[in-house]
Amino acid sequence: MEEGIAPPLHNEPPPLPYSLHTRKKAIAIFWTIFIIDTLGQPLILYWTLWYLTDLSHNLVFSIVTACLGGVSVFEYFYRLHNLFRKSSRARPLNARKSWLDFFHINFTIVWLILAVELIAGTVPEEPYVRLVAMVLPTVMFYFGIVHLSLDILRMAGFKAPFRISSTPKGSVMPTALYALIEDVVAVDGGGGQIYRYALRTRYLSSPYFRRMLFEMNCFWSGGSIIFAAAFTAVIFTVSEPVAFTLGWTLPFAWAGVWTLITIPWVQSDLRREKKAWAENRGQGGIPWTDDITAPTARTRFESVQEALPSLLPWVREKQSAPSTPSADGIDGISPEANPEAKPGGQSNVDGVDGVANDTPTQR
Questions:
Q1: Phi, psi torsion values for 281, nearest 5 degrees
Q2: Are 147 and 158 in contact (CB under 8 A)?
Q3: Contact 107, 79 (CB under 8 A)
Q4: pLDDT at 195
Q5: Could you tell me if 139 and 114 are in contact, meaning their C-beta atoms sit under 8 angstroms apart?
Q6: Cβ neighbours around 162 below 10 Å, total
Q7: Exposure of 193 by Cβ count < 10 A (0-12 exposed, 13-18 middle, 19+ buried)?
Q8: What is the pLDDT of residues 69-104, one digit of tens each?
Q9: DSSP letters spanning 137-190
Q10: Residue 167, strand partner residues
């Protein structure tokens, strides 16, 4: 679907024909195998072969790295087959047969980086354990930097320099999380081009949806970079056995916490989006276009920002005026303090809601 081409009208946000509830078993099986392959296997092999055998350290890590990433390798070639086969229903909309989606391009680049990292860490007679422990933090750094950079370019007004999945070259730079969701669900989740089209319809028609994805992308990519840096500091500080263990476990712990925060956050935002459409505030800016300046109803993140001063006692005390000013400015309080100052101040987010309320409905 191209920008500016309006699909049929909806009384609520255009639906996404995909449900995780019907795929719970498949998702559980995949993630169980993935965690065993990426978390359990390297740790078990390392601790058993390193401390319970007489194998050289170089051979130990040769075995560990050789057995690593079987699920990821299978997934890589499975995606490649799905995208390239003649009758593919998973490739990006209006893309050539030879065109990879954005996720697979990054999948390829990050695998090349990890291959160099693992080879450099295991070739020496005495392996560089800390470098091998950096595999998952490196993935966090890569995707965090790529996704955050894409959204910075988007907010700066840059156009897509090449096709980014279903977003044509020359269009407004899409928020990176939109491209990630589109590719993973369409190819790995089996949603196909039907899902790509439905997601693009939702993305272009709902400024609120675009804003939610932008905020969520900043949350994940920013958190990924910050915590990857913290994990790196830990890995190069503690002893090698502890560094290897933490390097392969801490990223999973972080991802678990971020997922637990994300689920209720997204559910709340989707309810707010639906409510905004019901109140004829779902549209804003240029209709059916990725208009980054389009006004939206207040998102969950903005509501938390507005409520934050009233939740933090030190901020509340700073913004609140004394009920009875001291005559001589005792305790550092000036008698000229404004008695009418309101705690928490006034947020201009409400002004955004006001704009959205006045936005005409889609013609």
A1: -115, 15
A2: no
A3: yes
A4: 95
A5: yes
A6: 11
A7: middle
A8: 888 889 899 999 999 888 888 899 988 877 889 999
A9: HHHHHHHHHHHHHHHHHHHTTPBPSS-BTTB-TTSBPPPHHHHHHHHIIIIISS
A10: 164
Q: Output phi, psi for 158, to 5 deg.
A: -75, 150
Give me the helix-helix angle, 207-235 and 240-278, nearest 10°. 170
For residues 200 and 166, the answer to whether their CB atoms sit within 8 Å is yes
In the structure, what pLDDT confidence band is assigned to residue 4 with cuts at 50, 70 and 90? low
Pairwise CA distance, residues 48 & 245, whole Å: 13
Predicted local distance difference test score (pLDDT) of residue 344: 42
Distance from C-alpha of 330 to C-alpha of 328, rounded to nearest angstrom: 5
Q: Is the pTM of this model over 0.85?
A: no
Alpha-carbon span 357 to 363, nearest angstrom: 16
pLDDT tens column, 248-286: 999 999 999 999 999 999 999 999 999 888 887 666 677
Pair 140, 147: CB distance under 8 Å: no
Domain map (residue ranges) of the chain: 21-278, 300-358
Q: How many residues comprise the chain?
A: 363
Q: Which two structure tokens, joined as six digits, stand for 167?
A: 């977003």
